Amino acid sequence: MAKENQYVEQIADINGDFPQWYTDVVLKTKLVDYGPVKGTMVIRPYGYAIWENIQNELNARFKKRGVQNAYFPLLIPMSFFTKEAEHVEGFAPEVAVVTVAGGETLAEPLAIRPTSETIIGTMCAKWVQSYRDLPLKVNQWCNVMRWEKTTRPFLRTSEFLWQEGHTVHASAKEAEEETLGMLETYKEFMETCLAIPVLTGRKTEKERFAGAIETYTMEAMMKDGKSLQSGTSHYLGQKFATAFDIKYLGNEGTLQTAYTTSWGVSTRLIGAVIMTHGDERGLVLPPVVAPTQCVIVPIAARKGGVLERCEALKAELEGAGIRVTLDATDNSPGWKFNEWEMKGVPVRIELGPRDIEAGKMLCARRDTCEKVEMPLENAAESVKALLSTIQKDMLEAARVRRDNRIVYADDMDGILAGVEAGNFVKAGWCGCRECEDKVKEKTAATARVYAEGESTEKCAVCGKEAKHVIVYARAY
Amino acid sequence: MAKENQYVEQIADINGDFPQWYTDVVLKTKLVDYGPVKGTMVIRPYGYAIWENIQNELNARFKKRGVQNAYFPLLIPMSFFTKEAEHVEGFAPEVAVVTVAGGETLAEPLAIRPTSETIIGTMCAKWVQSYRDLPLKVNQWCNVMRWEKTTRPFLRTSEFLWQEGHTVHASAKEAEEETLGMLETYKEFMETCLAIPVLTGRKTEKERFAGAIETYTMEAMMKDGKSLQSGTSHYLGQKFATAFDIKYLGNEGTLQTAYTTSWGVSTRLIGAVIMTHGDERGLVLPPVVAPTQCVIVPIAARKGGVLERCEALKAELEGAGIRVTLDATDNSPGWKFNEWEMKGVPVRIELGPRDIEAGKMLCARRDTCEKVEMPLENAAESVKALLSTIQKDMLEAARVRRDNRIVYADDMDGILAGVEAGNFVKAGWCGCRECEDKVKEKTAATARVYAEGESTEKCAVCGKEAKHVIVYARAY
After folding, report:
1. Strand, coil or helix: what is A210?
2. How confident is the model at residue A149, as a pLDDT?
3. Which of B71, B73, B96 sits opposite A98 (nearest CB)?
4. Which residue, among A255, A258, A200, A268, has the nearest Cα to A54 in the 3D structure?
5. What are the tens digits of pLDDT across the range B183-226?
6. CB contact under 8 A, B112 and A112
7. Tell me, what's the ipTM?
């Protein structure tokens, strides 16, 4: 038994030390490793496969929205940033700068992109000439760099991978619709693919993207009650179009300034998956993005016919499009159970001589730890159905967990008590920066998102009339 | 007619001014655009879609070879390069260097990766402990940077996209087999997917990758007779394993130094496709990687039922997995023909009222410009077969073109005359650097690849005994 529990013992207690649990899980399941430069990460094959599944799911959705993938240069002249005043203020302090190249000092230093509004804006100004060129919708999957002081794998690293979509429109209305439409697409993706429920809505001015008119966010609750900003969609109005001169000839013959949007999600999402679903045994991966959806563990593997039957089952499941691993190593079944549980594989099938004789297989669900006996006949169909059930149940379980931890507060003490207990706290807000700052100062919680459509009487801080209800939480 | 020929007129004559033809084609078909920083490119959606198709095809092949995708950091400490003496000598002059980040001067400057042997070697040293960890095979799709003086879109730019595979093995034999196995995989991919025949073999010492024991290359002939190095596979022996301390405990209990390989292809391949198949009308894309494989052009589109029938045909073809565009714009059919020919779409279907009545469609092949009438019944099957025929015929045509332009030479005059006429020239070589340098000096041709398995009597330069036959060519 000692050996069988070795992994569990190696992972810190999720309820006792959540940050250490996170670090243990990401390293021991080989999702990620620390890079040699401080604040960088190496995404190992098991982690990268999750990212590839995320990419495939999002690409299909982007395509439906008429978005095309492209690639823009990594290096941006520093002068580009200064064209949009708020933008440079927000990003300049975090930029990594190339000053030497090809053995020579550069005349103008070049920034490694922290985000690409400026360079894509420059190109769009060239490509957009007439209303016929609109809407223009491009996306790129790439690396970006923001020099951070404190870093954690997936959550905050100096370099990370993301997608950034950029669209150009003829009217404010169309651009606003695109901003909100993409937010809806993201939300549907989060729920359907990652089994993560999200609160969506506007950010306060303070939390807005540098240069945006309006930033919409998705906030997800992690198991420690903290919020993780999982993606944002920005309505940029004419701010970047004016700064980068994106103009088009309207169909009535006059030159018009365009409207733009941008939106993105990053490898942070892998962190969101870990901290939304993980448990004391390690990862719990949603089937849609799990690199291995089903692991087959042979029982009494040396007995005649067992391995062959396992191979045949593997082939059958793969034929149905299921991602399967057959663990035919020399380790004991118990060791394998722990290993694959830690790695979060949604379904484990145990198959031994007696099962085969009885025409059955034992399926263990990672999410609920339940075991179900199922016939070997039509195995692919049963496993597919089970994966689909797991996917839905994981979302539902996450939603219940979160909803049970959304509380209301009338005053600062209430907000503090709420976030201390690991909740999202809804509270009235007068709309002034001073009150927002005070909440952060006293509770370490920030305004995550407007509770859209909700209203209350008083600001929890100053007691004046509340203009909005805000969701406060501590955040990653 | 003037309008219908406008595109053709805009492209320089492929036989008169090949470099200008290339520039015209890449810009006018919107494959690429120049970035704001000198030497950078923006890969536009039409170009990026080709790259995505290349990625999908290669990923499937890598997976079969047991290679897993991962992601390693962009920035590499300068000190890493100096650990392998030849490597630093080869790459240091081309490196772009980050010296400032987060508002502070860095203690150690960081290089933007020109290639990742050093950082991946560092990580592998950590991951490889025992013979059980071997072989280790990882690949990454990423951007790299090499500061170049003269640049051309896809062919040579300061930043480009590529994949770099890195493997670690227990023995020299296994690593050598991997190096050659990957070369074979690349060659099969080039022929099957890009319809480009390649000469494969070793590079001379002078042309070797900085730090490799042996570099294997694929050389493809462009329509101007120049060679394009299309991919390389390097056997690194123990050079990097020694420099980065990649050691493993053998099954007999002693510590052993590992053997490594690396191999890569880049967005250069898009340039290879353009210059292998393109003609006076523009691009000619091989069906396997063409973003649009088939365009449907309605004839007399306003006539009742025509557009509807075109939509139905589109749906039918898409249902069979064909990438289809229906051009329902207001432009004239002639204008559309030119547009889609310039963009290199393999098959154009013309469908008008008379065709529909007769139950037929007119299919125009981009590669041969032939038109074939085919029944509308089972259209998907016919179009699939036609695409497959085009793919094979394009490879065959390219092979014949190339083979007709491989000549032999006995002396320097022969080499010069051969390359001047746009040929690959095979000639004997004694094996000394001096003779290799002389060929370059007198003919501007370089030793592209060993003509493996061939032999001849004399070195074409010094007249001494030939140890090898070399393929000389001018190159991109």
Report:
1. coil
2. 84
3. B96
4. A268
5. 999 999 999 999 999 999 999 999 999 999 999 999 999 999 99
6. yes
7. 0.96
